[in-house]
Amino acid sequence: xxxxxxxxxxxxxxxxxxxxxxxxxxxxxxxxxxxxxxxxxxxxxxxxxxxxxxxxxxxxxxxxxxxxxxxxxxxxxxxxxxxxxxxxxxxxxxxxxxxxxxxxxxxxxxxxxxxxxxxxxxxxxxxxxxxxxxxxxxxxxxxxxxxxxxxxxxxxxxxxxxxxxxxxxxxxxxxxxxxxxxxxxxxxxxxxxxxxxxxxxxxxxxxxxxxxxxxxxxxxxxxxxxxxxxxxxxxxxxxxxxxxxxxxxxxxxxxxxxxxxxxxxxxxxxxxxxxxxxxxxxxxxxxxxxxxxxxxxxxxxxxxxxxxxxxxxxxxxxxxxxxxxxxxxxxxxxxxxxxxxxxxxxxxxxxxxxxxxxxxxxxxxxxxxxxxxxxxxxxxxxxxxxxxxxxxxxxxxxxxxxxxxxxxxxxxxxxxxxxxxxxxxxxxxxxxxxxxxxxxxxxxxxxxxxxxxxxxxxxxxxxxxxxxxxxxxxxxxxxxxxxxxxxxxxxxxxxxxxxxxxxxxxxxxxxxxxxxxxxxxxxxxxxxxxxxxxxxxxxxxxxxxxxxxxxxxxxxxxxxxxxxxxxxxxxxxxxxxxxxxxxxxxxxxxxxxxxxxxxxxxxxxxxxxxxxxxxxxxxxxxxxxxxxxxxxxxxxxxxxxxxxxxxxxxxxxxxxxxxxxxxxxxxxxxxxxxxxxxxxxxxxxxxxxxxxxxxxxxxxxxxxxxxxxxxxxxxxxxxxxxxxxxxxxxxxxxxxxxxxxxxxxxxxxxxxxxxxxxxxxxxxxxxxxxxxxxxxxxxxxxxxxxxxxxxxxxxxxxxxxxxxxxxxxxxxxxxxxxxxxxxxxxxxxxxxxxxxxxxxxxxxxxxxxxxx
Length: 852
Known about the structure:
With 852 residues, this protein is an alpha/beta fold. The chain folds into seven domains: 11-116 and 251-313, FAD/NAD(P)-binding domain (3-Layer(bba) Sandwich); 119-247, FAD/NAD(P)-binding domain, CATH 3.50.50; 325-409, Enolase-like, domain 1 (2-Layer Sandwich), CATH 3.30.390.30; 418-483, BFD-like [2Fe-2S]-binding domain (Arc Repressor Mutant, subunit A), CATH 1.10.10; 497-549; 555-637 and 816-851, Alpha-Beta Plaits (2-Layer Sandwich), CATH 3.30.70; 638-796, Sulfite Reductase Hemoprotein, domain 1. The chain is built from 25 helices and 38 strands. The protein has a five-stranded parallel sheet with strand order 3-2-1-7-19, with no helix packed on it. A five-stranded parallel sheet has the order 9-16-10-11-12, with helices on one face. It has a five-stranded antiparallel sheet with strand order 21-22-25-24-23. A hairpin with a 4-residue loop joins strand 4 and strand 5. The radius of gyration is 30 Å and the shape is globular.
């Protein structure tokens, strides 16, 4: 029998720090086989294993330490790594080559410092307790949550990246949030003055107070709130808690005490091979200083970790030469992008600026002195320009004849850079340093699946900002090699949504199981194909969404025909066509809301939303609404939501057409129409546009001669103006064009694709669409109109359909054998109405309290 020989691990390697960079270094060491050479010890001061600090704010949205963790709980042990969590390293004894910890001493041959940074708190008199909170670790967030439990207002000191994240966290805890910044603009490192002003306008529009050019001199006891911040200009601001996010400092205390070389502005000095002044000790991430610079983003830290792991394993590595500090992120829901020399500090730099004060949007493009290269950019409000500008900046790509076109708004959306224009050296994923060339190598090695590519390269698994560009390049390179790009809906259907729609229509298929049996694989389907097929079936045949053949295909909102809210209750939205409602119906809504103690709010779509209904209450609420003359408003579905209107010529002295009458006609015709994504209409009685029709999927604006039709606009994460499609239409022609447009969209769009994105993807653009819809170039007009009429004729209120069917009603129970509500749902009163109890308030609820 041959004996199994276990390799002798000749050296001990210690990693101090188990943050994102330290963990990535360990991952790289494991992947490169370092465990056959080293005994690896990892020391983490926090109790939790490495977690994702990039998404730290999601901790207040329900995520816990496990869901934020960078690896499974047994990852280190399974690979033979000695993990020491909650253990502080007290000293590095360089002479004996040992670390001194709370557990004792541990010898090392090589040592990696990955201790990260700590939040800087200015020495302000009175800053202590809840007036000296910081936003860095999960324990810090627990402290903020506890402080917020009895607070009304919170202030963040610092208007940088983390400061705005902290302000968002305070808002999520239900506090009135304010930001105090010493500089004259927000994000002073990344943004110029105009960019900072645009960001300020957007942040203030979200209800966050912004106080610029303010230095806090002292913190004293407040009068109305717990504390008062006295500023250097004589002004003051009261608050219940204060979170400091005034920058970070390298966590270099161990290096200092071990007498390693420290940079003048902090940080353990490293060379291009990440070595400190002691050849046995290395430093990476935010605790390291290279050429006097500390890099506070995760991507440079990952680059350091990756190359150091290669060096320690004797593999080729890239000496460190600095890092691109460009960043793309969303702060309080606002797109912010900064690339390269955003301040145009380079001698001779030239700038183009686009300023949209109405929408608080701003874009700046910075060019080299000769005007031939992009060297920087600033984006506020729309990051769809970011990927293209970054590639121009990183790869020196030749500029178009008019460089301003790179930041100017276009009817087709932001300009995009074709994958073929990118050199192989172009970095697609900065987190994991994946280039276009690396993607091509994986394709040449046989990878043809995007998921496999991500697993092999880790591209797109960091911050996720590169996903769209990665997919574009991957599919382009596959096509260039003659490989047919798989556009299957999912593993169960080797067809696109468009192809499945055609199959359902041609073959008259009316159930998911029938479609799966004839044209799919497997027996059950998945979360991708089920809702997509459910939408197709509903679009074609307008079956009630609660029918047995459709109900397993829908998400929670569609299943229960109401929108689930964060505390497990539901909101109910009856249809108020065109925003027109009688006094009797208003009274009925008030009576029903009062009876069931529902929170009521008027929506932006001229409807009334009733919040806080429990599952078992829904059928009763629907019954009373139907008796009062209402029907479902389909707020839960990918379907027509609203047709917003002004009062038009009926009342308004400027109105030239009856906008309310047209809105009622359109909403009555298209209510219940299922589509790939939600759709909204607007009808304005004159060009003053009070119904905001040009921001809708279908916009109708009255003229002296009829109606102008606009199409493919939307609000949401990426707002887009609708485009003028046809002018001076009579009523019947208007309806015909809308019929054709909507049915052509439903027939050809991809799953969950908005009309705006679908329109942008059409080859031939708006002119092609006009030829199809107006000129009937495909001879489809009659067919599209007939399809729409079938849907219209088969309409039935889904609420009414459900409450008359005892089998369907069985689903609306919290407990199978009991009509009681959910005992875990709690409310508190605020401004005369009840609202959900925030997580931070749960401890305030008496044990004996009855569920409201």
